[in-house]
Specification:
This protein is an alpha/beta fold. The chain is 31% helix and 13% strand.
Length: 327
Amino acid sequence: MGRKVRFAAAALIAVATGVYLNNTSLLAPHRDGKPVLLAHRGMAQRFDERDVKNDTCTATRMLPPVHDYLENTLRSMRASFEAGADVVELDVHPTTDGEFAVFHDWTLDCRTDGQGVTRAQSMAKLKKLDIGYGYTADGGKTFPFRGKGIGMMPTLAEVFAAFPDKKLLINVKSRDASEGEKLAGVLNALPVARRRAIMVYGGDEPIAEVRRLTPDVRTISRAAIRSCLIRYIGYGWTGLVPAACHNAMVLVPVNVAPWLWGWPDRFLGRMTGANSAVFVLGPYSGGEFSTGIDTPELFARLPRGYSGGIWTNEIEAIATIAGKSKD
């Protein structure tokens, strides 16, 4: 019995040692360099995020503005890149006249002087709206951007033309598979090198279509995020990378990251080998995957020398902390 116990113990130690050596970052190559910064919504007006739901009008919850940039505008995107962003995120909706409008909300009523569902409008009509109309930081007493956002809603084509060599993340706001098919057609019309600098995320159905029709574009959806991370936590110790983590934008909440086998360097290396890009988000608590690394305290939770991606709503502040500010 004693010999069997010793053998079992030795085998267990050998397995544990193998798992450790296969996953420790101490033996993994470290990728030098500064982190890759993703500006969520570009330079945007911040708002009170407490108890925000999908249908909350965030423009009426605006915090006192510290700049005059409005999200999803060419001006905002340009300022984000100038502040140190490597990637800028933008939201799209198809229009009735064959374009993709770059705008966040499902409806127009919150931010603009228009009404109705965004995707039910023509781009010609959307171009006439004031996208700064609804912003207020004092309960509707004043509207500091009213009249200043007329004609500022761009098309996706205009974004591509304005930033021909910049990395972009496109957010598909619907669950409509046909929207993914249409976006794939737009992406496939781009040169290969340009297409590979673009990532797409959003609803499961349209993203499945983009992934099927444009296999060289990195994608992620809510279901794919969960599948990737849960499966990797389950068997990533073997070195195998789940299919959902391949050719993907891998979003990692900062409080989930320590549970990932080989975090950070071994994990980053495996994802690079799967042609995927990793971006760390703010803490996940069962809600939306949309909080960012927005404060010095959250940035401090990243590993020393971390050179992967960071998702942030505060590009100016985080670029300065990360040493990427261009001022």
